[in-house]
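Lab notebook, bench 4. Still working through the backlog of constructs that have no structural model yet. Next entry is a single chain of 426 residues. Request: give me the structure tokens for it.
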Amino acid sequence: MAEQQNIDKKQVKKVVLAYSGGLDTSIIVPWLVENYGCEVICYTADLGQGQELEGLEEKAIQSGASKVIVEDLREQFLTEFVFPTMQAGAVYEHKYLLGTSFARPLIAKRQVEIAEQEGADAIAHGCTGKGNDQVRFEVTAMALNPTLKVIAPWREWDIRSREDAIAYARKHNVPIAQTEKSIYSRDANIWHMSHEGGLLEDPWQSPEEEMYQLSVSPEDAPDEPEIITLEFESGTPVGLNGKRMGPVELMLALNEIGGCNAIGRADIVENRLVGMKSHGVYETPGGTILYTAHRELESICLDKDTLHWKQLNALRYAELVYDGKWFSTLREALDGFVMVTQRHVTGEVRLKLYKGNLIVLRRRSPYSLYREDYASFGMSDVYNQQDAAGFIQLWGLPLKVDAMLSIAGTGKSRFRAPDYSIFKRD
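Model written out:
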């Protein structure tokens, strides 16, 4: 990091900028030209931002870029980053489905590859020095090509607020959508949309309904429930309501259905990697449906030991993704474990969507470990109720021995009337 913070500007002739067309990256183009005197190539990954991509190339050229590269990575994003994370069951701090977190390593990966193809000396990003994304971009670059220089304007320039950024953009005739009266920092892709800034900087403030872009409020959702059936093969979603769909088509359909039924809103005060807390709101309508359905299918397809161990791994997996360590040996190793667990996660899940609620109606799988005949209270060749007596004796043996020793010493089990005074301080 020290090397990156002390870049010899004369050595930088060409830079590949991760360009979104938003406020920050819009002003970075003229800033790089002014301060580094370098050629700027703008790279944009289409991850499903939609209207944000309209006019983006023209805007970048007008801002001073020599070249603009736009790629449709939606399917790669879903199949190589989103679905593996969903299969892992990874959720950050109970609520966040990692929509921005796993988008950044894919963007940074392609940014590095393009820098190599174009003969660039450095890459640049528009992440602030207070956020997580700077880590995700730069750690990815370090993992893939540590010889590339990394320019992070927010750690160099005198701009300290979005108001300053807006003023800079106006001075350099860069067209922007943000205003001082309505400032939200958003990140959107085919998986989610995040909202930060504005009223959200105060966690006591309720989000404005007008802020939401992908979902209606529960009050405005239909008065009749919507029932859907999702189909999975080896943990991967492949169909909706009896129709086979590719990843992009399926995701778009689920976002539409989920958004119309007020599914997938999450308001969270999260712990950033850089050590501070932040307040954000996430909309993940289709993703919330997929997570719920996939978890329900696993409940009948995975045995107890595997399911419980997988739940532990999910916490670590989520942290790795959130912390920018997608390209790490540990995440790769955890992926190997997850892939094995998904071999038999095949089947269907039926859900009812109603005013923000997801209700599981049915689940079935040809690999289901649930058997009505085994779970019944009758006798069978598979399970004999009388066998339980011996099992209980062995299972409870350590507790029995502990109680016998306590009774021999004090006359009673230590759990009958525990003395909590021993834990009191003077």
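Notes after review: Residues 376-423 form one domain. The longest strand covers residues 39-46. Flag for follow-up if needed.
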